[in-house]
């Protein structure tokens, strides 16, 4: 994951910032940049990478979990889930 993705977030858009962050990460997962099993940066690091508040990054990770794209293992990290062939 690039160390500066803040240019991808536009607070003026009529979409919540956490959704923009989640959408960007989801696109990286879909395109294979983030492969199954890959560990996402820590939420504080994501906040720095995207130039957003820590709680915004935290909400984005929750959104990704809700979408079934990542799983968070306490004290281990957040990982991209394996997708079955019929899921895309």
Q: What is the rounded distance between the termini? A: 21 Å
Count all strands and give the number: 2
Structural class: mainly alpha
Average pLDDT works out at: 93
Helix content: 40-55%
Beta-strand content: 5-15%
Give the overall silhouette.
globular
> Can you count the helices?
3
> What integer value in Å does the Rg equal?
12 Å
Largest sheet: 2 strands, antiparallel
Uncertain segments of ≥5 residues (pLDDT<50)?
none
The helix/strand order is HHHEE
Physical arrangement of strands within the biggest beta sheet: 1-2
Q: What can you see in these coordinates?
A:
The protein has 88 residues and is mainly alpha-helical. The protein has helices at residues 17-31, 43-50, 54-66, and strands at 70-73, 77-80. The chain has a two-stranded antiparallel ribbon with strand order 1-2. A hairpin with a 3-residue loop joins strand 1 (70-73) and strand 2 (77-80). Helix 1 crosses helix 3 and helix 2 (43-50) packs across helix 3 (54-66). The relative contact order is 0.20.
């Amino acid at each position: 994951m690039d160390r500066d993705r803040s240019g991808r977030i536009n607070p003026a858009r009529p979409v919540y910032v956490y959704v923009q962050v989640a959408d960007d990460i989801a696109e990286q997962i879909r395109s294979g940049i983030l492969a199954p099993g890959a560990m996402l940066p820590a939420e504080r690091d994501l906040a720095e990478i995207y130039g957003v508040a820590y709680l915004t990054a935290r909400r984005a990770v929750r959104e990704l979990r809700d979408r079934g794209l990542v799983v968070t293992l306490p004290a281990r990290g957040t990982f991209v889930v394996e997708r079955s062939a019929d899921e895309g």
